[in-house]
Amino acid sequence: MNLLAIDTSSANCSVALRIRGDIQHLLDSGPALHAQRLLAMIDELLSKSDKTLSDIDLLACGIGPGSFTGLRVGVGVAQGLAYSAGLKVLGINSLLGYLSADLQPGNYAVAVDARMGQLYNAGFKINDDDSVSETTETIVCNPGEVNKLFGQDHTLVGSGWNIYSESLPALIRGKLDVTAVRRTPEVSMEPTTDRLAKFSNSKHLLHWASIKLASGEMPLEAERLVPLYVRNNVADKPKSIT
To answer: Which residues, 6 or more positions from 9, have their beta carbon under 8 angstroms from its beta carbon?
Structure first.
């Protein structure tokens, strides 16, 4: 299946294309570039593969949580492309864009900056068959209110943990301190560069979209694709951090 994936949930604009197993990926920085660059990046990838939108079988779109403006741009572009080419769309939780395809089976807790002193966060389980499911719902909350389960049996993923490290529950803060230890020849630690990445990556979404399709998840008609805002009112002030 030829699959095109886009994600505009963060400050990066990310596009990935898979044509018969060959994957190409583009990443551009700056939230103001989403509306200006997204279509051009899609065209660039299609051109490199000598393909057009009519050669694509399905669109995958990161629907959030994330930047409200970015999500509107991404979902709007996905809908427009789907309408024009008669395609269906698979909406993917953008937090999955932080989980790379080469992660080992296990539980992972993703946290990213939601601004206003809060975190978007969710727990995911990668199963032995590579399928993925949520261990906790996707929410926005103060750092001190994140699910303590994350500190017990979840590997921490995403830049939000470091950004608000001083305000996290002690259990999670202690775990973060351990995983952030610098590696030395005498100490073998899991690399943290990718796990604590700052941005969602459409290349990862491409992988999880394929997994979800193989697991029987059904894509949507374009008009049914909606952003996952989580925080419904940006004017609401968060509760004080305790």
So the answer is: 62, 64, 65, 66, 67, 70, 71, 74, 94, 97, 200
- Other CB atoms within 10 Å distance of the CB of residue 189: 12
CA 194 vs CA 159, 199, 201, 237: distances in Å: 10, 10, 11, 32
Number of domains in the chain: 2
**pTM of the predicted structure, to 2 decimals:** 0.88
The answer to whether residue 75 sits within a structural domain is yes
Enclosing domain of residue 27: 3-94+199-224
User: Could you report the average pLDDT of every consecutive run of 10 residues in the chain (242 residues)?
Assistant: 95 93 87 79 96 97 94 95 97 96 94 95 96 96 95 92 94 75 34 65 95 95 96 51 35
Burial 27-52 (b: 16+ CB within 10 A, else e): ebeebebbbebbeebbeebbeebeee
DSSP state of 93: E
CATH number at residue 154: 3.30.420.40
Asked whether residue 184 is domain-assigned, the answer is no
CA distance linking residue 63 with residue 45, whole number of Å: 21
- What is the edge-to-edge ordering of all strands in the sheet holding 155-157? 132-141, 119-126, 106-113, 155-157
